[in-house]
Amino acid sequence: MKSSARDTTQDSAAGQERAPGNDSDFEVFDDAVAGDARDPYPELAAARKASPVQRLEMSNMPHDEAKPVFFVYRYDDVLTVLRDGETYSSGQIIELIMGDVMGRHIMLGMDDPEHRRYRALVSTAFGPKAIARWEAQLVEPIASQLIDRFADRGHADLVREFTFPYPTQVIAGMLGLPREDFRQFQRWSIAILSVFTRREEAIAASAEVKDYLSRILYDRRREPRDDLISDLAQAELDGERLSDEEIFSFLRLLLPAGVETTYRSTGNLLFSLLSRPDQLAAVRADRSLIPQAIEETVRYEAPLLNITRIATRDTVLGGVPIPEGSTVLPMLAAANRDESRWDDPDRYDIFRAARPSVGWGQGPHICLGMHLARVEMRAALNLLLDRLPRLRLDPDGDDPHIRGQVFRSPTALPVLFG
Ligand code: HEM
């Protein structure tokens, strides 16, 4: 999916040159890991029926070769796994996947009691109150500035020009990074997101981000400002504070956890509505429908299809024995379309009665950034509808569609307006 001449990254916020040969930042992002499946749902539905807890003989997911791997498809079983962090540990995520890139203190890979302490320290900064202040101050201006670049043009690709750069800029803004560094931060972010396909580059970028952030952290410890790094530097629980290493790990985790998911979900929201003009018209006319459109999108098209746990003891799930040490993969995308929980689950319907899905996870690790992600998605949709009259998919677009079997999001969003 090569972009046409509609390149928009001319105006690098940093005023820096782009690397020669790079069409845009998006092209540098290696998305191979997302997988090429256009519609994995029939297969997931068949597996949910035939073998709801499925033992795999082979898996290409990172795991201990000597131990079995299980996929979990039903909503109730997925919930059981996610809520029971003692039996289903997150601990080995660090060993198997992320440790060398994000550092050793990633909350996503911690178990209690360490996880509880850490989460308590960082959660105030991501609560609804804290996030509300970023909406007007940061999220809306960033969305608007991105739209400024193409608003007069009558057409755009909202993936390259909007959803892709948007969440990285929001995180950079929350961290209080100077605007001229956003571009570099975006590059590091892309390198870190490509960890599964270009590990060495990801590790190198991660080290650079750490050096860069350590200078900023040093400054903020001496002179706090109104930003996330200062909040984290000052966060205190029972007289305890986060160490520098803990702060760096957390900040780097925000790139995969907070950027990739939100970029993909914002694309999924826009694609889902743009390809259903009646539901788009309803939202356009009544913006109070946006929150339910967001939740339906995260249910119907979860950006992250599965997550990983390790069984800490012999157990039984859905009648299937799970030996200690097994890798257990809750399939969020299958659980979110479980017919025992939702009527007609394969229909995208923003009007359906709201029931929480597992798109945000559940239990102790439930998404810390959900309030921020909702604010970002809402601001994006509101501003695009406000500023781009008659926004619609370009009928001559190159068959844009949502794809992926690990992560999912649209290949492109060619739109017309005006
Ligand atoms: C629509 C967008 C998003 C979706 C669908 C999403 C989904 C998820 C899911 C499924 C988990 C649970 C992982 C697990 O249990 O192993 C999670 C955890 C997490 N998310 Fe999100 N996320 C989104 C946006 C964000 C944003 C914007 C941020 C922060 C800026 C963020 C930060 C985190 C963090 C730090 C965790 C780990 C929480 C913990 O371990 O206690 N996420 N997210």
Task: Describe what this molecule looks like in 3D.
The chain is 47% helix and 9% strand. The protein is an alpha+beta fold. The protein has a five-stranded mixed sheet with strand order 1-2-10-7-3. A hairpin with a 2-residue loop joins strand 8 and strand 9 (320-322). Helix 9 crosses helix 10. The radius of gyration is 21 Å and the shape is globular. Protoporphyrin IX containing FE binds next to helix 12 and helix 16.
The number of distinct β-strands equals: 14
Spell the H/E element sequence: HHEEHEHHHEHHHHHEEHHHEEEEHHEEEE
Strand order of the largest sheet: 1-2-10-7-3
Overall helicity: 40-55%
Radius of gyration: 21 Å
| Rounded mean pLDDT score | 88
Percent of residues in beta strands? 5-15%
Q: Which residues sit in consecutive blocks of at least 5 with pLDDT less than 50?
A: 1-23
Give the N-terminus to C-terminus distance in angstroms.
Answer: 25 Å
Overall, the morphology is globular
Question: Tell me about the biggest sheet?
Answer: 5 strands, mixed
SS class: alpha+beta
Number of helices: 16
Q: List the ions, cofactors and other small molecules found in this model.
A: protoporphyrin IX containing FE
Concise synopsis of the structure shown:
With 418 residues, the chain is an alpha+beta fold. It is 47% helix and 9% strand.
